């Protein structure tokens, strides 16, 4: 019924726990407090993050897969979990020294680490979604935002 | 790595509990019962609704944010929660006098109240999703439906 | 390793959606409003209720079961779902004319309807839990409260 | 405020439990084991699947609905639940004799069964999403993949 | 404020996916079908199981722990996950040759494997809960059932 | 049907986000690392905590309630949320200077703050449950542990 190869989106979820703090060093203490509220508390607070990586591509007839899950799991482990889990993002990861670790920026930062590792294959990164809590998530689709 | 400002989608979830009834006054009792089934029961029934508001825009480098969550929370509180929570939609809100409060219509009605409040800013409303139960939700993307 | 027949607790979950209102007719409008807050709104509001019924008994070696799930499902359907789903509890069910339909009272009322139907069998009702929202539930264990 | 009829996406979720096995008969036992890992175990394993069907269309002003849920429920029951629930997909359904029952292929197969049943109405199938576990899901949008 | 050492219950959750079939070889095909319904389908079906292990004991003042989670994780991995995950219980595990793999029996069987490994320590196994689906779980408390 | 006043358990859930670190200053760095693993990372990490408070008591016939939820909400806000939310427990709360902020100790500490506020009323604190992640929770029942 389908003549061209079917394109399917596959989404894999992983989890990590980290501390972070919202702070812009170019601003006064008052301004930081006013804009970021309790997220500016000096020692940071933390979350159980859920990150969802969506890959799109043709289904390989031999495997029935767009991508082998072990490949995504390996990339997620190396680029996200092993770097961020049980860490204080601002204090321990260089990329957050000069960038506020908001949910939005985390989505972009995770995209930037994962997307290059999927280049050249039959599938490509479609979306990174990161949930900071059950009530807040951010999604980044790369430069081709819908 | 990203030359044009990154567009990120941010989604905020809120909850309210309300009663409603499906009824079209232009129809006979039989037709109402036939089309709407138990949703037509005269005194109404109710749900724990979850509403998700998705905003899209560029990330402000100073804050790392597309929009300050307090702004979305204030809009959700004023336009959705304070009006709908602990209410019988048909009996207490004028907009449901002549419109069936289905999940579909709720998605549109919430869009219509929220979208104007986000005009003129750097971000815009992308989607309203409303879940009536774990097994049913409706999504409205405005006139630019994908 | 187990000489006496093993006692196992089996829990079955069901869902229904209903409207209700908290109101004590013996009180003034002010007192009702003061005690019950928005739960006293005149036309009621509603919830997606989850009810969990826990039965305890010996495992029958022939079936591996404490009770056949179809039996619990039939009781839940007849005593809870068919009576309460898509109903306004105060307006449509006689037992709520003179009893406030709080989560506590719902737990007791469901126990009273289900417990007698399990008498005489090899298992007995152990607990009724009812969740009004993800953040509130009540549990009733009959007269042998732990 | 909306001149053209509003397009709304409605999503309905259903559940089924099934066993499956990943195996390509054209390959050696070693290659199957290497590619599919424990998913290749000879007797199969199983999952609680969640399938979400999203339909898009204009809201009928008389009903407030894009499609009557009973219609979707009937299609889901006939095409998915009654065929797949409590089955071993590879052993009992002919379409999986020569196709690996991955999450990707399940999404396509469910689309192929449901999409024709929605032709000619006012709404059309937009997406089939199937979740094999809380950490993995696949989505198929037909030939018009976004 | 607490003079005797505080007793705390700690619960750890793990997940596995398995296939199973309900069948009593002492019965006729008709009787099996009548009692077990679709759970008797010959090739089996499957579930994503969640198993919760609850341990109770005094909190060690030096660690703040009742038991080191790595110890529970190791026991769960060896006794449950590595044996049951991605398996067809009836076909691949000897203990299910002559015992119906119901949720009740799974709770007992997991207790029997885990409880001896916790003997002699400062904490003891209090409960095994196993969820076959979001709507069904069984709990076993050993011979001291509450 | 019930002659003695029915005892019902009511459970209220609240959420907070905090950072913490597991560290025993009486131990060497090696021993801390060995026992606590990545939980000993120097700057801490964090979680979205869910705390459930269960109160037991007789249902007041006038209100249908064991306790007015606003009362529990006020206690939870004052004793838990306002103190712990968006905080680094070790760095900002005196009680964690000399106590490891494990899930076990958090359950006890929250009990100690909440139980006295419920003394003298018609209901009493029955259990504090705190979930650090979807896969780990601790429960404290006071000195009358079941």
Q: Can you tell me about this structure?
A:
6 copies of one chain form a homohexamer. Chain A is of the alpha+beta class. The first copy, chain A, has a single domain, classed as 6-pyruvoyl tetrahydropterin synthase/QueD (Tetrahydropterin Synthase, Chain A), CATH 3.30.479.10. Helices cover 27% and strands 32% of the residues of chain A. The first copy, chain A, has 4 helices and 5 strands. Chain A has helices spanning 29-36, 69-84, 89-92, 103-114, and strands spanning 7-20, 45-58, 87-88, 123-133, 136-140. Chain A has a 5-stranded mixed β-sheet. Chain A is elongated and about 60 Å long. In chain A, 47% of the residues are buried. The model of chain A has no long low-confidence stretch (mean pLDDT 94). Chains in contact: A-B, A-D, A-F, B-C, B-D, C-E, C-F, D-E, E-F. Chain A binds chain B through residues 22, 24, 26-27, 35-37, 99-105, 107-108, 112, 134-141, 143, 145-146, and chain B through 1-2, 4, 6-14, 56, 59, 62-66, 68-70, 146. Strand 5 of chain C pairs antiparallel with strand 1 of chain F.
